[in-house]
Amino acid sequence: MKFVVFFLSCVFATQALAIEVENVPNPRDQNLWVTDFADMIDPVVEQKLNQLIETAHQELTIEIAVVTVDTITASPSPKDFATDLFNHWGIGHAKANNGLLILMVKDARRLEMETGYGMEAVLPDGWLKRMQEAEMIPRFKAGNFGEGLFVGTEKSIQRVRDNNAGVTTQEYQSSYSGSYGGSQGSDSEVPWWLAVFGLGGAGLAGAGSAWKYRKDRTCVECKKKMQMLSEVEDDQHLDRGQYMEEQLGSADWQYWYCTDCDTSKLLRVNKWFSGYSKCRKCSYATMKVTQVTEVYPTYTSTGRARITEDCRHCNHHSVTYRTLPVKTPPSSSSSSSSSSGSSSSSGGSSFGGGSSGGGGAGSSW
């Protein structure tokens, strides 16, 4: 009997700590971004985390919420809870859907990172999962929860910044297309054909790719398989632009030759994530494009960004400016929705009305 009483008391105590989505304090009511309801983050780290997210919000217009809770109600999983909380608060701007929720459930030892629709391409599920396992989970296991959250948030912001998310469009993604590959520099996690055709198409594309690989490396004269020079040996067959592409990691040039009939060919293998794009002057994938926001847009005025192009091969340099659109104000419906889950305070703000369809990734520690 005593055991039953003890067991029931533990159950009731756990239920008392459990929180529902509507009762999680909204950090924007205090003009903050972090709700440490489970008291897992050192106050100094929490302050730095709020500053980090605020800076990213001003620079990139993205919205990031970091939340810790002791436990959640029994019905939803941590993933369901994250999706519901994301949509309840409306994290991210309504049109851009550029929100990110980082949720920690203490008793479940579970981390969930939920992305808005507009962030799924910039922060793909696979990348989030790998980043969590490499940067966040080891720190959580060591008890450094605040540090893990800070590093994970910082890595996510840096990836968004590198992709110019929130303020640019695809015009600043690499558009290089070589003779022996598709678009180089794309930031998708998989080649375009896999995204379009799915697993079945991937099998067909893989078969076609294997056929092309054999064809490109077969001598056109005697039909025998050619040999490839080593990375050091093939450098003497490259021009300056091709050599620079290899040094920058934007391409791998391979020199193939036939031992029987002296036939040779130079093949270009694209590197997908080098960060360099095709230079408009020399046409080599040796140009770095950077964007710096000089004037941040507000809800009433546009901003301005400086776009710099620098080519490592031909030394092409150009600076242009781009007008950043006025920020989208929160909709009235999203404002009322975000304030319904917690009491409002004077001088508070709200999230922008974004939504999530369940994108993101989670890990346990």
Protein architecture, described:
The protein has helices at 2-17, 43-60, 78-89, 125-141, 145-162, 192-216, 240-248, 332-340; strands at residues 18-19, 34-36, 63-69, 71-72, 99-105, 110-115, 176-177, 183-184, 227-228, 251-257, 264-270, 287-295, 303-311, 317-324, 359-364. It has 365 residues and is of the alpha+beta class. Among the domains are: 21-165, Roll (Diaminopimelate Epimerase, Chain A, domain 1); 220-273; 277-324, N-terminal domain of TfIIb (Single Sheet), CATH 2.20.25. The strands form five sheets. A five-stranded mixed β-sheet has the order 2-3-5-6-15, with helices on both faces. Strands 9-10-11 form a three-stranded antiparallel β-sheet, with helices on one face. It has a three-stranded antiparallel β-sheet with strand order 12-13-14, with no helix packed on it. A hairpin with a 5-residue loop joins strand 7 and strand 8 (183-184). Helix 2 runs parallel beside helix 5 (145-162) and helix 4 (125-141) packs antiparallel against helix 5. The longest helix has 25 residues, at 192-216. The protein is elongated, with a radius of gyration of 26 Å. Residues 1-16, 165-213 and 331-347 have low confidence and may be disordered. Residues 323-365 are annotated as: Disordered.
